[in-house]
Hints:
Number of helices: 11
Number of domains: 2
Shape: globular
Strand order of the largest sheet: 13-12-11-7-10-9-8-14
Order of helices and strands: EHEHEHEHEHEHEHHEEEEEEHHHE
CATH architecture of the largest domain: 2-Layer Sandwich
CATH superfamily of the largest domain: Dihydrodipicolinate Reductase, domain 2
Distance between the termini: 38 Å
Helix content: 25-40%
Structural class: alpha/beta
Amino acid sequence: MKFGIIGVGMIANFHAKAIAAMEGGELHSFYGRRQDAVDEMVAENGGKGFTDLDEFLADPELEIVTIATPSGAHLEPAVAAAKVGKHVICEKPLEVTPERIDQMIAACEEAGVTLSGIFNRRFHPAMDAFKKAVDDGRFGTLAICDAQVKWYRDQAYYDSGAWRGTWALDGGGALMNQSIHLIDQLIYLAGDVAAVSASMSCLAHEGIEVEDTAVAILEFKNGAKGTIQGSTACWKGYPAEVNLSGDKGSAFLADEKFRIWDFQEEAVEDQAVFDNLMLDSEGDGLGASDPSAINFTGHKLNFEDVVTAISAGKEPTVGGKEARRAVSLICAIYESARNGGKRVEL
């Protein structure tokens, strides 16, 4: 299937590299508002360039668009693409409020096209092993379920774009922009959250509207308790973790390797985890201090999952409704924090 990318810059370039490496996809075109930026992307990656969105979308060869614009500017191009019959794959967060996401979902459903979010941290062997352990009941009764993102972004990061650190276009700070991947993983593994209480602050950066540090206490629908810690003010940045503990087992995932894999009852797959998926050094973490210091493997697998789903007439792993879950939780955390930590039910 032929892909077009809406947006230019670092994330769009990740999309281009992933599409070039994937099976079942071909990089076809780019859209951006500035001719020089579009020309640069085409020169580096190939394909056709457009500065008119209508012309870009009208290309009859174009089948799937990926959206790599600022977070609060996902709705409009997604709806425009859906209306002309293009499938849509959109960067995280799908949009900055559940209400805007609902409009995207409705537009794609009405047009009969697929909508998928990009949660590239879902697509690696350790997550597969983690999810299987959950589904097999190996944790017993879940007790404590956490997500921890102790990353670092310097002031220059926020100064690099006028949209960064704004509620309208960034949708939030350390939670909505950086921690959303781990929040998605947490609820994918542990289940939906029933209620939250939270606090947030901007502690180490200037000139931004949003939080650079937040904590939340979670009450899961299954009875488990948990926390989310998200920050871009932690020098020098460390691996992001999702940790689940129950009365029969615990697993602590640091980026794409386990720090802890410990269960009362052994399983045949444990040896493969110990051989291939255990953390052998702490390291600095994927993207923990430099957002460009990630690979595009997860994006590639995410895109391949969508193409496979379209071909089979099925919902992709991270369809629109699935991608909405993390945004809904984050917005509830923000609501609680703005109201002095008041308990908010989801």
